[in-house]
Amino acid sequence: MSFTPHHTPFELDPAQLRELALDFASNPIYLDNKEWENEDNPYHRQLRPQIIKYLDFSKPLPAGEILDYSALAANRLLATIYEADLMFLPKKGMTDSTWAGFKNFYSSTNRARGEMIRPYLEKHVFGFLDDIEVSGDWTKESLAAYLGRIQGQATEPSASEKAIRESSDPKRAARNWLIQFAPDFLSEASPMIRNVMGYYGPVQSEWFKIVIDEYGYGVHGTKHSTLFENTLASVGLSADLHRYWQYYLTSSLMMSNYFHYLGKNHELFFRYLGALYYTETTLVDFCRRAADLLTDVFGDDADVKYFTEHVHIDVHHGRMALEKLIMPIVDQCGESVIPEIVRGFEEFQAIAQIADDDFAEQVRWMDAGPRNKVLHAPVWAKIESGEVEAPVAHIVEPRGELSNTHQHDGDELCHIVSGTMRFVSGYDSHQILEAGEGTVIWRNRLHGAIIDSEECVYEIHSVGDYRACLS
Amino acid sequence: MLVVNFAVEGAHNCVEVDGVPYVYARTAKGSFVMPALCPHRGGPLNLAEVDATGGRAVCPWHERATSITRLRRKGIPAVRRGNTVTAVLPVPADSEVTTTHRPMSPAFCGGRAA
Ligand code: FES
Ligand SMILES: [Fe+2]
Fold it and tell me: Which Pfam family is one of those matched by this entry (chain A) (predicted)?
């Protein structure tokens, strides 16, 4: 009897990957929604399988394409795959639809198919972080100096906060902002808990204490997710899980996926520590400003306890992350783990920056709705006269047809030939477009549409850069 | 220890602390922060060439060679993200810091394949 071991890496070629991704996303719970919001059904997430055959997840996206449609699609897939590890139940009891969703979402088919494509999706959306290079001889002392620098450092208001304050509709902007936090905050600490499982020494117990804080010491009313639900409710939003799935930006999903990515892949354990330190330390200032911002925008109606609680507790968490997790783990494992900790610290900064800029731009995009509608006329004139030639899609849709939210990799012009379209550029943000009208659509900006007439005939011209059409 | 930020390329690609200039070198075998002054007689290490093996940086003045692996692994602790370097220098935290520009030899403007 002879046995020749044959252990090979798991690999998919691009065609297999596309087929498996399509298969995963074709699950009935992931098809397009007829409504804008998912109502009390935590298993429904719109993954737009009809587009997957045009996408290539097989290579890392370069930094400049990290907000392209392919990234949105991959982040939606990843969030769905990671969350199959988490427990969700509808709030109002099981209906036929939620029972079916429950069984589908937690089925072995869904999980197995998701796991096969996950490594590629992760490389697709997080591969650009490989650009970060750590070098030199890191010691505990240099690590302490490097990490210590952000402690107590006052941070500037972020681009997103400024965009909300400067918005023509700060309430709308602030609601959209809170919506972006929902994927992270409603199941807060779940990615972290992935690191509390196992058997690895005293740090495991220290980490567990952070989890206990996040979970409100077992008192449901003080669990951080409960505090966030109260914030949502106080400004007229609902806390159904992923009710606002269609309004999540690419980078918001990326932020919450990032911690699942680190927590799910335990070879990235040390990066998690660096990323955790950055987030816990900067959150103190951020939460203080967030509480003020929401109070300024909504008045005292806004329940900001979620944020004020974090101002109190994260002072401790930043310190705990450094003194009780990071330094002891370096003592235990040796200084060779430091470059990974440093890398995680830098990675999360990079992602947080992308998310901040992405949301600020989305606020400008929502605010620019009326102006983009006006800009249709000059761009359309260039197309009509033949001065601008761009690929065009002719589309006919019936009343109620809902184009689930998405974004394009270049600017487009939407032109209505007949009928009426409600063009949606965010939560509570839309323009009505009638025959002869239309809108400029910015590159990488989330949008969707619904037909408000018996039928609507329209054209999408892929102009690439609409400003170039106007010069 | 002193934590400093400076640019990989461009007008502010050199940080000077207590009279010692530091730059960021990118080679095919990895990148690292190094003092731009040769320990032999103060030659401009920012203008060093890399030898034929690609493994050693060679000072333009008297050809003193230093292993790139050593510079990378045993050198100044640093991290680069985009065009920004953060380095932890072995000097007191209150040392005086200025940023300037130093030209870099082509061998140090490479960088690993992404
Ligand atoms: S100064 Fe560098 S080798 Fe002499
Ligand atoms: Fe579109």
Answer: Haem_oxygenas_2
- From ligand 1's centre to the CA of A438, what distance in Å? 68
| A134 contacts: CB under 8 Å, gap ≥ 6 | A339, A340, A342, A343, A346, B78, B79
Please give the Cα distance from A259 to A252 (Å, whole number).
12
d(CA B2, CA A146): 8
Residues 6+ apart with CB under 8 A from B8: B24, B26, B80, B83, B84, B85
| pLDDT value of residue A311 | 82
Beta carbons of A256 and A323 less than 8 angstroms apart: no
Q: Does residue B114 carry a pLDDT above 50?
A: no
Supply A70's token pair: 């392919």
The shortest CB-CB distance from B88 to any of A131, A132, A145 is to A145
Overall residue count recorded for chain A in this entry: 471
Residue A310 vs residue B7, higher pLDDT: B7
Q: Which two tokens stand for residue A43?
A: 């298993």
Question: Burial level of A76, CB count in 10 A (0-12/13-18/19+)?
Answer: buried
Q: Report d(CA A446, CA A170) in Å as an integer.
A: 19
pLDDT tens digits for range A404-448: 999 999 999 999 999 999 999 999 999 999 999 999 999 999 999
Q: Which atom of ligand 1 approaches the CA of B62 most closely?
A: 3
- B2-108 adopts what CATH topology? Rieske Iron-sulfur Protein (2.102.10)
Tell me the ipTM for this assembly: 0.94
In the Cβ-directed half-sphere of A177, how many Cα atoms lie within 13 Å? 28
Residue-range domain boundaries for chain B:
2-108
